[in-house]
Specification:
The chain folds into two domains: 3-56; 65-98. It is built from three helices and two strands. It has helices at 8-43, 48-52, 83-90; strands spanning 65-66, 74-75. The chain has a two-stranded antiparallel ribbon. Strand 1 and strand 2 form a beta hairpin. The longest helix is centred in the first third of the chain and has 36 residues, at 8-43. It is elongated, with a radius of gyration of 27 Å.
Length: 100
Amino acid sequence: MDLNTLTLKELKKLRKDADKAIADFENRKKREALSELEKKAAEMGFSLSDLTGAAKVKKPAAPKYRNPSDPAQTWTGRGRTPLWMKAHEAAGGSRDDALI
C-alpha cells in the first residue's frame, strides 16, 4: 500500500482502524494472560485475588456526620476533627446533632 496515494480522509480512517486493531489486540492478549494466570493459581489451590491481595482492598468509610450549616461537608468520624465540627461544638452543638 502506497500511503502517498491516499487522501487525507483515507489516511485518517486507516489510522483510526489501526488504533482500534492495536487496542483490540492488546485487550485480547491481556485477557489471555489473565486466563492463564487464573488457571495456574487454581492449579495451586488459590484464586488470583488471593495471590494479588485484590480481596484486601478497603473501601473508604462512609460519612457519619454532616455539617448542619452546609450539608455538602461530611466527616467519617475518623482522623482529625474538621474545622466545621470544631466550630459546631464551640457554638454549643454536639456531635449527635450532626449525625447522618
